[in-house]
């Protein structure tokens, strides 16, 4: 029985790329939380306005339903999951959900974000993401890995730290 994994972090940390690579390595389904945003959320972010909790709640519920569908079978979801209460909301759908927090400095992630022209999340919102970020707490199942590593190294490290399967 495998629990789903949420690859979390601020915009530009590599969640989608690492999540897809991890899912492929574990041979489980992958989904990107960006695909679950309603059009109004995307338009708000494109206009340079950060989402508030009211905007995020239905989006997180949709992600939670995907996690629930993959609870026990495994799956990987890329999702910012910046606040503890957002992660708690996701765990309400599948209590065993684990988190892989891709951590990096604003400078490193800002440089990565600058190389993604056309993404709906403008670089101007990066500071608000770091302001919102609440790192994983001791009682949350998950690991933190620095984004300065290669994708393969991040995936290898995650698998090594978790024994190759979600706990």
How would you describe this structure in keywords?
Gluconokinase, five-stranded parallel β-sheet, P-loop_NTPase, EC 2.7.1.12, about 45% helix, alpha/beta, about 170 residues, Rossmann fold, ATP binding, Shikimate/glucono_kinase
Output the CATH homologous superfamily.
P-loop containing nucleotide triphosphate hydrolases
Strand order of the largest sheet: 2-3-1-4-5
Number of domains: 1
Give the helix proportion (percent range).
40-55%
Count, helices: 7
Shape: globular
* Mean of all residue-level pLDDT scores: 88
Radius of gyration equals: 15 Å
Account of the 3D structure:
With 167 residues, this protein is of the alpha/beta class. It has one domain: Rossmann fold (3-Layer(aba) Sandwich), CATH 3.40.50.300. The chain is 44% helix and 13% strand. It has seven helices and five strands, in the order βαβααβαβααβα. A five-stranded parallel β-sheet has the order 2-3-1-4-5, sandwiched between helices. Helix 1 (15-26) crosses helix 7 and helix 3 (53-69) runs parallel beside helix 4. The longest helix is centred in the middle third of the chain and has 17 residues, at 53-69. It starts with a strand and ends in a 5-residue tail after the last helix. The model has no long low-confidence stretch (mean pLDDT 88).
Gist of the model:
The protein is of the alpha/beta class and 167 residues long. It has helices at 15-26, 39-46, 53-69, 84-91, 106-114, 126-132, 151-162, and strands at 5-8, 30-32, 76-78, 98-103, 142-146. A 5-stranded parallel β-sheet has the order 2-3-1-4-5, with helices on both faces.
């Amino acid at each position: 029985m495998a629990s789903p994994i949420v690859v979390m972090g601020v915009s530009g940390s590599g969640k989608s790329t690492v999540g897809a690579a991890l899912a492929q390595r574990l041979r489980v389904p992958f989904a990107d939380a960006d695909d679950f945003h309603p059009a109004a959320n995307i338009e708000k972010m494109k206009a340079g306005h950060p989402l508030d909790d009211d905007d995020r709640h239905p989006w997180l519920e949709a992600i939670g339903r995907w996690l629930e569908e993959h609870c026990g079978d495994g799956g990987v979801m890329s999702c910012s999951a910046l606040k503890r209460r957002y992660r708690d909301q996701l765990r309400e759908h599948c209590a065993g959900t684990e988190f892989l927090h891709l951590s990096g400095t604003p400078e490193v992630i800002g440089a990565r974000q600058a190389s993604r022209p056309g993404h709906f999340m403008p670089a101007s919102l990066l500071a608000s993401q770091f302001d919102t970020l609440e790192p994983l707490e001791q009682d949350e199942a998950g690991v933190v890995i620095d984004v300065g590593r290669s994708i393969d190294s991040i995936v290898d490290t995650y698998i090594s730290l978790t024994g190759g399967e979600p706990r």
